[in-house]
Amino acid sequence: MDLKDYITNVPDFPQEGVQFKDITPLIADGQAFRYATKQLADYVKERDADVIVGPDARGFIMGTPVATHLGLGFVPVRKPGKLPRETLTESFELEYDQTELSIHKNDIKTGQRVVIIDDLLATGGTIEATIKLVERAGGNVVGIAFLIELAALKGRHRIEQYPIHSLLVY
After folding, report:
1. Active-site residue set
2. To 5 degrees, how large is the angle CA 146–CA 141–CA 62?
3. Contact call for residues 142 and 131 (beta carbons, < 8 A)
4. Is the Cβ–Cβ distance between 153 and 133 less than 8 Å?
5. Is the dihedral of CA 120, 95, 14, 61 positive or negative?
6. Angle value at C-alpha 135, between 23 and 86, nearest 5 degrees
7. 101-133: pLDDT as tens digits
8. CA 122 to mean position of chain CA atoms
9. pLDDT tens for residues 16-66?
10. 62-83 pLDDT, tens per residue?
């Protein structure tokens, strides 16, 4: 199955000059979504992970079915103010803004083998912040997986010390 057949390019969204990769057609097609999450699950198995972490919000979409398939837990990394218990927070820069991500302080156990899953690797800021949160919580990042990688934005270079797996590279 060619997963690129299920990704729609949307020119000039959310702003002029951006070529947005819309994953909605892929997740709306049961067979394509199952195929993609199975490929990610195979990678997580190879990495011998204990838990999967995914950043808000499409990391939830891609990571939770993988966790369910493998019988692993899933730990969400959320935008500010969305988690009710004590959190660890990491600030980072987006292309035109600064933001934060948070994780519950005790959801990752010291020494747990963590694979981070997200839909897209662009500049790498979100994943770099997620890695920092996992490591501050005591986890060991043993892999990072994406549905899509935008190679021209060079996000891989920010996280190249970790094993990276991308199903599609544009």
Report:
1. 58, 95
2. 30
3. no
4. no
5. positive
6. 85
7. 999 999 999 999 999 999 999 999 999 999 999
8. 11
9. 998 999 999 999 999 999 999 999 999 999 999 999 999 999 999 999 999
10. 999 999 999 999 999 999 899 9
Quick one: tokens of 38? 């199975």
Q: Residue 156 is part of which domain span? A: 3-169
**SS3 per-residue string spanning the chain:** CCHHHHCEEEECCCCCCCEEEECHHHHHCHHHHHHHHHHHHHHHHHCCCCEEEEECCHHHHHHHHHHHHHCCEEEEEECCCCCCCCEEEEEEECCCCEEEEEEECCCCCCCCEEEEEEEEECCCHHHHHHHHHHHHCCCEEEEEEEEEECHHHCHHHHCCCCCEEEEEEC
* pTM greater than 0.85 (yes/no): yes
The pLDDT of residue 45: 98
Q: CA-based Rg of the chain, rounded to a whole angstrom?
A: 15
Which two tokens mark 95? 């292309």
- Based on the structure, what is the number of domains in the chain? 1
CATH code where residue 110 lies = 3.40.50.2020
Q: Which amino acid is at 19?
A: Q
Contact 112, 51 (CB under 8 A): yes
